[in-house]
Structure formats: C-alpha cells, structure tokens
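Support request, please re-run this one:
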Amino acid sequence: MPPEESGARASPQQIEEGTAFAPAFDARGLVTAVATDIDSGEVLMVAHMNDEALRRTIETGEAHYYSRSRRKLWRKGESSGHVQRVVEMRVDCDQDAVWIRVVQEGPGACHTGRRSCFYRKVTRGKDGTARLEFHEAGKAFDPGAVYGAGRV
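Re-run finished. Output below.
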C-alpha cells in the first residue's frame, strides 16, 4: 500500500531533508522511474513502478516495472533477456520520481529494438512546426525475433 494511503507520509521537511524512504505514489499508485546507463549516463527508458515493482527492484537488484497498458508487473528482460541490473537508485526531492542507474544487459532497452527508448529528437521544420528526427536510426536487435510479431 502506498505510504500516503496508510498515513505514513511525513512532512515536506522530513521528505525533502530526511533519510526515510517514502515514495509519493500518484492516484494510480505509481511513481515515475528513469533508467540510465551506469557508464555513459544515457537515458535508456522512462517507465512506472508501483509499490511491488519498487520493492522487488530493491530486493533483487533487477529493474521491475508496472505496465500501465498491460496492467501488470514485469521484470525488465523477462521475455527479451535484456535485464537491467541496478547499480544505484536515487529518489528526487519530493520522492515522486526514482532514478535507477543500471547495467543494461543485452543490446537494448527499447521494445522497438533500439538501445534507448529516446531514439528520436524533436526539431523544427522550415515551417516552424515540431517534427521528429531519428537520432539512433539503427536497431540493436530484431524485436520481432525477441518478442514475437504481435508485440511490436
């Protein structure tokens, strides 16, 4: 159960300056999680964790997330083998976001077959409108072979 539902959430001063881990889950019971590569600092993915995913990540040292679309807990790499080993976990000032620094095992973190989920950058076209430009066009692995044709 998220701490605020049990009344366990401390004062803003204690949350921001104290040592108690008291994540601020949103109304759906989720906290944002950002995973970066431990060596390069590259952002690999942004996902969500519920209380169980957060606990399992801390207990096992492997990243676990909550899929909003599938409405279920999942361990990163459970179907692809591309596990994220957590080296360090940090929480932001008001404890509503988690940053995990990971060793990304396997060629990529993104279900599209790329190393990172952030493979496009936002640019402005000649007419001033926002467009997407591929920053990392090549794929690190074949997602169809890893996840099956229906997943991608």
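The chain has a mean pLDDT of 92. The beta strands are 31-37, 43-49, 64-67, 72-75, 84-91, 97-104, 120-124, 130-134.
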